Amino acid sequence: MTRSRHPGARLVWFVVGCLAVALAGLGVVLPLLPTTPFLLVAAFAFARSSRRLHAWLIAHRVFGPLIADWHRYGAIRRPTKVIGVASMAGVFALSVLLDAPAFVLAVQAPVLLASAVFVASRPEPPRE
Asked: Could you give the CA distance from residue 78 to residue 120 in angstroms, rounded to a whole number?
């Protein structure tokens, strides 16, 4: 991927990348907020705005392998799948325990189920 030639476009992509990294960071500690999709958006945005930040993100010891696995294979590692699906189940269980309104549960259940099925159905990257 190449950087955008227009300075205004680079600024927009830079802001999008920074926001995506911030949301991914929140996703590490908030179970309902996904981390990996925001990292993928950040990698995409930084590839168009900042070679330095793109290289930092790709080389990051925690986030880099997630991005590389998705980019190369469309894959998610098994431990990441387990944590993701368990987090989704935990969020739904917490909602039930906190007596969330029925309409909230009615929205959460299919969204979390579809997300869990998607995550679980992704292939695992080949062992290197």
From this structure: 9
